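My current task is to audit a protein record that another person submitted. Alongside the sequence sits a line of tokens, each denoting a local backbone shape. Where you disagree with what is written, explain briefly why. This is what I was given:
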Amino acid sequence: MKQQIKTPFSEKFNYAIILIFCFATPFFILAQFGYENRQESIAITFISLFSLGIYAIFKIYQNSKSIFVYCEIENTNKKIIINKLAEEKNFKTLPSFNSEIIRLYYKKYVLGLDYEIHFYIHENQIEFNAFCNRPGILDFGTRKRILKSLKNKIESNCASL
């Protein structure tokens, strides 16, 4: 199963900003303030920012993996299932440039997390992934819950048809 959904540029840009902040800030602090006066505080800053950077790399890898659901029904029925899911979950439909891709929009809170969910319809499977539209690596498990509930709904709908 080759992954067809690519990470959007906005999310790649947000990840780049986070990684630059995590790995470049300690060296900037060291160059500006020196190492002689505050050894413990600089060491704590180095450790915390580097660990945040390593966690960001882990999250980037984890968020780039799509979920595949095996489904042997026709592509038109798959699109109907996804559109029905969008109505149930109150997702907004976004314009798509490819007939095989369906894009949905999900917003959790007024000022909170908003996600783009991309569905790619193959011949015998559905591939989907959720991408956060804000900078940051902390989503408190919202992406995982969205993908899990979508997977369960799609599997149950494919089995019933």
